[in-house]
Amino acid sequence: MKTNTDKYLVKSDKKVKIKDFDTDYNGHLDKEAGKQELDAVKEELSEFQEVLYASNTHSVLVLFQAMDAAGKDGAIAHVMSGLNPQGCQVYSFKTPSSEEYDHDFLWRHYKALPEKGRIGIHNRSHYENVLVCKVHPEYIMSENLPNYSSVDKIDKGFWKNRYESIRNFEKHLTANGVTILKFFLNVSKDEQKKRFLDRIEDPTKNWKFSSSDIKERALWDKYMDAYEDVLNETSTDYAPWYVIPADKKWYTRLAVSQIIAETLKGLKLEYPVLVQEEADKLAEYKKQLLEEK
């Protein structure tokens, strides 16, 4: 099944509203059919990853952003299950350390970029600096920025500059062979509530729940505004955002995997071809091996 990527893609020339994206879309599939599709896509991913690794000319950076309980960890786990761990790196970003606060906000993310031939997956990303920090501008104070000595100095111009820094950062990466895919897992508020209750009621899932989850849920509308701004300000032709339905975890995993596979296929990478001198040596090596006793 070919994914209709336009259904999820945030085009750079159009403004979007998050409410216009269906959180419960399932691609007209049932769960069993979706799992079968996912198994097939995993095989493709494995093949594409091998060529990516062998060619050693490109890398792929996959970013996941979402509200709590949207299924980022599960989506990453399922994408990873179709990949060779040797060619894949996963980073989960938490609250910055004191060392990280002593650098610019992109520093720790730049350090975590995948090398050529590899796929890098970032669970949360540099976008936390225009999402969580926009909802909680007091966090910016920890950066000790010149001219921003108090929260009331953080104005529209500040955020405009942040978006521009991010666009320039991603443009620089793509110019140097990094293909960037950005996924916003779009879960509904009702579905988040169900998943929170499940975590509370199931002792084996209690560890997943935090009191901060409830505090952040109370700020849902502010987060949706922040996400909407991010989508409209930073979805570009070279680093697009995809808004993925997240109320059905199995479909989220399928859609994400299909988009990654299609993107890798679109790179049209090929295995390296040996120069004639090296190719000629292979015949001699083969002869030596066959003559071994």
Automatic annotation (TrEMBL):
Ribosomal protein is among the record's keywords: no
Q: Does the keyword Transferase apply?
A: yes
Q: Entry's InterPro entries?
A: P-loop_NTPase, Polyphosphate_phosphotransfera, PPK2-rel_1, PPK2-related
Q: Which UniProt keywords apply?
A: Kinase, Transferase
A single Gene Ontology biological process assigned to it is:
polyphosphate metabolic process
Q: Which PANTHER family match?
A: POLYPHOSPHATE:AMP PHOSPHOTRANSFERASE, POLYPHOSPHATE:AMP PHOSPHOTRANSFERASE-RELATED
Q: Which family does it belong to?
A: Belongs to the polyphosphate kinase 2 (PPK2) family. Class I subfamily.
Q: Can you name this protein?
A: Polyphosphate:nucleotide phosphotransferase, PPK2 family
Q: Which organism is it from?
A: Pedobacter xixiisoli
